[in-house]
Specification:
single chain; alpha+beta; Rossmann fold; 5-stranded antiparallel beta sheet; 4 helices; 7 strands
Length: 183
């Protein structure tokens, strides 16, 4: 399986394989992950996103510090490749997206079925691969914490980024008066 591997902490803007790069060269010698429990689902990753948290994690500046070496990446979308005997919601061939703490910068990732969301056929997998962190963050903040209601004013600073764009969209769906600011 091909994967991008963090071999040491450092500057994530350096190309893989260089002496100073935190990334080893992409290689196909990593084993395909096995199902780890009866409710495990293996997903062939079609799309993953680069989030600021991943950027900080590679630098060693994030609150979660995986043991080296590790495969970075959080949100992803793809197609179910294999399921454990206890899986009820998904079958091979189903389209899904999810959020992992690490591991999505690889061809395959394994997750518990409870951590996966079905992706409708009309939704592009590339778009679905960017949903979990950005929309999850905005939905938690606006719907659960702020309990945003129709007619309220929502000011979104940084409206051009992933979380900002999703906050604008969620605000509009909630019926808020949205003021979006970006530079």
């Amino acid at each position: 399986m091909e994967a991008l591997v963090v071999r040491k902490l450092g500057d994530p803007t350096l190309p893989p394989g260089g002496e100073d790069s935190p990334f080893a060269a992409v290689s196909g010698d990593r084993p395909i992950p096995e199902l780890s429990s009866p409710t495990s689902v293996r997903v062939r990753v079609a799309a993953t996103s680069l989030n600021f948290a991943t950027f900080l994690q590679v630098q060693g500046k994030y609150q979660e510090r995986p043991l080296l070496p590790y495969v970075p990446g959080s949100d992803y979308a793809g197609v179910v490749d294999a399921v454990g005997p206890g899986v009820r919601r998904f079958r091979p061939g189903d389209r899904v997206c999810s959020l992992a703490s690490v591991g999505s910068f690889a061809e395959f990732v394994v997750a518990d079925e409870k951590a996966l969301y079905a992706v409708p056929d009309r939704c592009d997998l590339v778009a679905a691969g960017a949903l979990p962190v950005a929309f999850g963050t905005s939905h938690l903040a606006l719907a659960h914490r702020a309990q945003l209601k129709a007619g309220q004013v929502l000011l979104v600073l940084g409206a051009a980024g992933g979380v900002g764009v999703s906050a604008v969209q969620i605000g509009k769906v909630c019926g808020a008066i949205v003021i979006a600011v970006a530079r």
